[in-house]
Amino acid sequence: MKTQAIVIGLLLLVVLGVPFVLSAGKTGASHESGVRTLIVVTPHVPQIRDEFARGFAAWHEREYGERVSIDFRTPGGTSEIRKQLE
Question: Which residue range is the domain that position 20 belongs to?
Answer without folding.
Answer: 2-85
